[in-house]
Amino acid sequence: MAGFKKLIFIQLLSWLLFASVGGYFIAAAFDGAASNAQKKAQLVVSNYINSHSISEINPEKIQRALADGNTFSSFILRDYDGKEVINIQSPIQLPAFAKFVESRFNSIRPQFAVNSAADIKVEFTINAVSLASLLQQALFIVILISGIVAIIPVIFMKAMFKRLNRNISMTVAEVIDVYINQNQVEAGLETAIDNSKIKRLGADLIPSFNRLSHFLQSKHDDIENAAHSIKQEAYKDVVTELGNRNMFVEYYEKNIESSEKSTFGSLAMIRCSELQSINQTRGYQRGDEYIKAVADIIKHISGTYTDSKVFRLNSSDFAVVLPNVPLKESERFGDNLQSRFTQYQQNQELSSVANTGIVGYEKGKPLGELLSIVDNAMSMAQSKQTNAWHVQRETDLVNNVSAGFGNQNWRKVINEVIEAERVHLVMQNIMPIGKSIKAYAEIQVRFKTAENQVLPTASFLAMAEKLDMAIEIDRLIIDTSLEKIKSRNFSEKYFGLNVTASSAHNDQFVIWLERRLLKETNIASKLVFEVSEFGLQQNIKASKRFIDMIHRVGARITVERFGVGLTSFKFFRDLKPDFIKMDASYTRGLEEDKNNQYFMRLMVDLAHRIGVSVFAEGVESQEEKHIVETLCLDGVQGYYIEKPKDI
């Protein structure tokens, strides 16, 4: 459109130029014609007056001949003395252009003639109206023709521009199509155009489209980089700067679940057990510091494994992917985490730091199923000592019907067990060391499904605790145990019953248990209730109320899994337990571990000073039993002493 306007402007200038040039030549022609007419008129007048004398000239006749003004617009005849004999004035008005030309060229001027006798003098001006009319017509014709000559190209050029624009648009459109298609294949744009019908028209566009291609590629790279940066920020946890759950899901689906090559490894889930407590008691800033410290520990430990990845799944959970690390090796990872967590716990004076669940993964394993299994492993780790870890092995996945159960499935299974009272009781004796020691048999429980399959006890109890169903399970175990003891008439034997900390700290459960034991006073005096050291520490006041109630009805208390917490002996003086049972981790390899031997000897000495008997659990060899005996413990329990048997 801009080119068309330019063309119109050029044509307009051309028209004005042609009209001006034509007008100039017409004016020049008019000037020449006027000069010739004046010369002819002067010649005629001169010949006429030379052939006549003043007396021969008839003024009336001349007056009649010139009065119409067609020949002369002005005619003055004078005699020898200069006296006017004839004076004819026929003023005329020339056309505007002729008047303009006449004023510029001075074409029509008064002419003078004198006869040879010098007695006749004539002054005249010719009438140029006819010449002026011809001039005006010629000018009009020039203007008209030049205007037509200028307008006709404009008219044709407009149509040509439209057609040209359409052809250019179609050519560019086809080149764009070729450009788009060639970006989908390996052939270049030049080759694609050479093979098309637009070779001649589109060849000149190749450099521009190549520049466009480079420009678009540059912009595409910029957009990709910006999108990647935005994605990294969106997938990053603001507190720890680790990848969040979205990044974990993307990583797992891309590198494990949908991987083209075979892959395996271990997945660990670490749950910060103290986050809620720290947020409530010390503030959210301290909670963030705690999370950062745990993240640093996890990154430090996992950093020793090639290609390991750490993610923060939610406020309290971390996930660690250990590619190509078998479950056996992941146990060392769990031990290292537990050691560092315990060290941090002591420095910060915390009750605990975190628990770890570990499972193996392989190519094609759905993430949802894997998370369900690792969550189950986490639940089992939480049922152990402080900062404990648990590995869910392949054999567990094959043999345990609980493998892969989600929360809803667990809730259904636990409800079925409670409603049908599908519990099986076994007992494992604690062998006393010394004749004066009073030991007991620990009643242990096996839970069964409707198909009579045994559920893993640790997983079952951990999930019951997680789903707030532990109290109902404890009631079922106690009721079943009391009925079994009554039916077998074990009047001389002592029995130990495990109670979860959540039940021991629940006022309604404590009231129910006290009433239940008061109904069975003869049996209550034969019972020993076992509660974990870690559980008792969670609420000292509630723990004291529970232990006081147990002593009030004539029963006894054992603090089990002792030695994994930070409990002081002032705590025992206040609670006054009857027994403590050292955690199995101190018994394992005891014959070679001098540190554990020293610690157990110290615990035994202190416990005996306040009247508390000390048992060792997890004794599985003759060597371990011998060392325990030399350390002056009061009793031993384990598979080497006696395996659990039916009541």
UniProtKB/TrEMBL annotation:
Respond yes or no to whether keyword DNA-binding is given for this record.
no
| Record SMART domains | EAL, GGDEF
* Sequence ranges assigned to domain GGDEF in this UniProt record: 263-394
Q: Which UniProt keywords apply?
A: Membrane, Transmembrane, Transmembrane helix
Carries keyword DNA damage?
no
Q: Which InterPro entries match?
A: Cyclic-di-GMP_PDE-like, EAL_dom, EAL_sf, GGDEF_dom, Nucleotide_cyclase, Rev_trsase/Diguanyl_cyclase
EAL domain residues are 407-647
User: What GO molecular function terms would the record report?
Assistant: cyclic-guanylate-specific phosphodiesterase activity
Q: What are the TM regions of this chain, as residue ranges?
A: 138-161
User: What is the official name of this protein in its record?
Assistant: Diguanylate phosphodiesterase
Q: Which organism is it from?
A: Pseudoalteromonas porphyrae
